[in-house]
Automatic annotation (TrEMBL):
Its main location: membrane. It is found in: Cell membrane. This is ABC transporter permease. The keyword Plastid does not apply. Signal peptide: none annotated. It comes from Pseudomonas weihenstephanensis. It comes from the Bacteria. PROSITE patterns: ABC_TM1. One of its GO terms (biological process) is cellular response to sulfur starvation. One of its GO terms (cellular component) is plasma membrane. InterPro entries: MetI-like, MetI-like_sf. Residues 61-241 form the ABC transmembrane type-1 domain. Keywords: Cell membrane, Membrane, Transmembrane, Transmembrane helix, Transport.
């Protein structure tokens, strides 16, 4: 069997096993409880198909994806230049590494009370928290990309009397793009995890808001449908990031 086809079958078997474990968990742990039936795969997928015909669902998905994209762009605009600067200077790397390692180990969610007090509720604190979460993988992978550059390319650039801008544009940036895309993929995973609790900060749209709404309405099958949808969308975003990385690596 071809490798790609075998991987597809194995992946499908893994998903079916997960679905079976979900069904067994509800049947065993929720045996005799009427409430447990609302969390079953049957009820969840029935609610999911109903939600797919609702314009409200697509509005919330669009809002969440917009927050992801904008936050990722802001993280790139800050993280890539900062990573290039740090990667090009041993002294700057030594000066910033302890502070950056300290900051990146603080969960972005722990900043939520502080950010809400300073910025209030709404989109502004969400963008801040998401950007804070996404910037560290991009910075660290950009630094790693600069360090991994072949010194002979830099020597060749100097021997050809290339300016700093030409060296940056022709040598450094093409050499670090693969590492930056690795950081982007890691950032997307972090963003998707942090997004849902961030959207519970008093906003009126988004996947996190919609989950709170289903809870308040006691629509538990819809709540589980949203959990499944979040997993599907996150899987699709990661697959997109992996595809970009593979295409760049293949082109390189």
């Amino acid at each position: 069997m071809p490798s790609r086809k075998r991987q597809w079958w194995l992946g499908s078997a893994g998903l079916l096993s997960l679905l079976l474990a979900w069904w067994l968990g509800v049947e065993v742990l929720g045996s005799g409880q009427a409430l447990a039936a609302r969390f079953s795969p049957q009820a969840t997928f029935a609610s999911l198909f109903e939600l797919l015909g609702s314009a409200q669902l697509y509005e919330n998905v669009w809002v969440s994806l917009k927050r992801i994209v904008i936050s990722l762009l802001m993280a790139l605009l800050m993280g890539v230049p900062l990573g290039l600067l740090i990667g090009g200077s041993r002294n700057l790397e030594a000066a910033t590494t302890p502070a950056f390692q300290f900051l990146r180990m603080i969960s972005p969610l722990s900043w939520m009370p502080v950010v809400v007090m300073l910025m209030g509720v709404g989109d502004q604190p969400i963008y801040f928290l998401l950007t804070f979460a996404a910037v560290w993988p991009i910075v660290l992978n950009t630094v790693a990309g600069v360090r991994a550059l072949d010194p002979r390319w830099l020597q060749l650039s100097r021997s050809l009397s290339a300016t700093r801008w030409e060296t940056l544009r022709r040598v450094i940036l093409p050499g670090v793009v693969g590492h930056v895309l690795t950081g982007v993929r890691l950032s997307i995973g972090i963003l998707w995890i942090v997004l849902v609790p961030c959207e519970m900060l008093g906003v009126s749209a988004g996947l996190g808001y919609f989950i709170l709404d289903t809870r308040d309405r006691l629509a538990y099958s819809e709540l589980m449908a949203m959990v499944v949808l979040i997993g599907v969308l996150g899987f699709a975003l990661d697959a997109f990031a992996r595809g970009l990385h593979r295409r760049w690596a293949h082109a390189g």
